[in-house]
Amino acid sequence: MELGRLEYLQALVTEFQVTDSTEAKEQVLANLANFAYDPSNYEYLRQLQVLDLFLDMLTEDNETLVEFAMGGLCNLCLDKTNKEYILEASGVEPIISCLSSSNEETVMSAVTALMFLTTPRSRAQTTALPVVECMLRFSLSANTRLSNLAAIFLQDYCSPPQVEEARNLSKHTAVGIPLPKD
Question: What does the alpha-carbon distance between residue 50 and residue 156 come to, in Å, rounded to a whole number?
Fold first, then answer.
């Protein structure tokens, strides 16, 4: 049975790599992200380099591919081995970039992944000033899911001085002021 699971996951990865259909790629990536939810698949997904596939997809122009890749990484990064791999592969930066996505699910997964990826060693990166500023903006969102998640991030992962510094910096910026029209 276990060999069948590996073969099935390999078939999905192969299909993703060989298909030219955007719709098929989206469907396969969604399936891989769902399989990433089950810890019994972690070893297979590492063996098949799915973490790299997810990380690579974070910079795609296709928002659906980014959403599923970010969801897959979010599912995988609770595992200690996967977390270390993502951190070593410089995965925090592309995850932070996903905070500016217009796709709500991508943003929610990115915030959650940053929480899961925060360790004493990675904290400086996952709670860098721009991230804290972003979380402050998210905490004011009308979207309850996002505002609650951002509030938890600020409370549990950031120090009070970090939050205060970001608040003070935000007071002196033009965030939210529209640019003049031509």
Answer: 30
Cβ–Cβ under 8 Å, residues 36 and 75: yes
Q: Which two tokens stand for residue 85?
A: 């791999």
Stretch among 22-26, 122-126, 172-176 having the lowest mean pLDDT: 172-176
Q: Which long-range contacts (CB under 8 A, 24 or more apart) does 142-149 make?
A: 143/104, 145/104, 145/108, 146/104, 146/107, 146/108, 146/111, 149/108, 149/111, 149/112
DSSP structural state of residue 172: T
Q: Using one digit for the tens of pLDDT, what is the confidence trace for 56-110?
A: 999 999 999 999 999 999 999 999 999 999 999 999 999 999 999 999 999 999 9
Are 16 and 25 spatial neighbours (Cβ–Cβ below 8 Å)?
yes
Q: What is the CATH number of domain 1-121?
A: 1.25.10.10
Whether 141 contacts 104, CB under 8 Å: no
CB atoms within 10 A of CB 62: 14
What are the structural domain ranges in the chain?
A: 1-121, 128-174
